[in-house]
Specification:
Order of helices and strands: HHHHHEHHEHHE
Number of strands: 3
Radius of gyration: 18 Å
Low-confidence stretches: none
Distance between the termini: 15 Å
Strand content: 5-15%
Structural class: mainly alpha
Shape: elongated
Largest sheet: 3 strands, antiparallel
Length: about 160
């Protein structure tokens, strides 16, 4: 897989800027919430994607924005590569909540909880890996294969 680092940086910066703006914060307000000192210019270059952000700095910025860094990176990955991470099933929480099959009630309750805590502006799309699917299958008293089949009926997409 080839990674266009410039495009990746731009998309990451766009995600960070979008999260900041969703909170109604200026760069100065975000900067005041950071654990370490950085200049407003540096923060601007991260948001513009013209400067690489270190992993530690990304985690710090995401913590200030109250969004896990792995969720931000998952959205960036989705935008840059346009696919679901390998070994995951991509699901829409709204579709799960709308489904009325009784056997999916535990999954529906979980999806409702996730939607309720979803940060402002975040898409209701989640990626579940095999251990999560196996656990949810147990909760629904279905085999993992049966649960995956039911979720694919709801429009879930998988990548092996």
């Amino acid at each position: 897989m080839q990674i266009d680092t410039a495009a990746y940086q731009r998309v990451l910066g766009d995600e960070l800027r979008s999260l900041r703006k969703q909170r109604g914060w200026t760069r100065k307000e975000l900067n005041s919430r950071l654990q370490s000192e950085i200049s407003l210019q540096t923060l601007a270059t991260y948001e513009l994607g013209t400067r690489q952000v270190s992993v530690v700095r990304l985690v710090e910025i995401c913590a200030a924005l109250a969004v896990p860094a792995h969720e931000v990176l998952a959205r960036v990955h989705e935008r840059v590569f346009g696919d679901t991470p390998t070994g995951h099933l991509s699901l829409n929480l709204v579709a799960i909540v709308a489904d009325e099959r009784p056997e999916l009630q535990p999954l529906r309750r979980w999806a409702q909880g996730r939607l309720h805590t979803l940060p402002l502006g975040q898409t209701p799309q989640v990626h579940l890996d095999l251990p999560a699917l196996e656990y949810m299958a147990q909760l629904c008293q279905l085999s993992t294969v049966e649960l995956i089949r039911a979720l694919r009926d709801l429009g879930g997409t998988a990548r092996r």
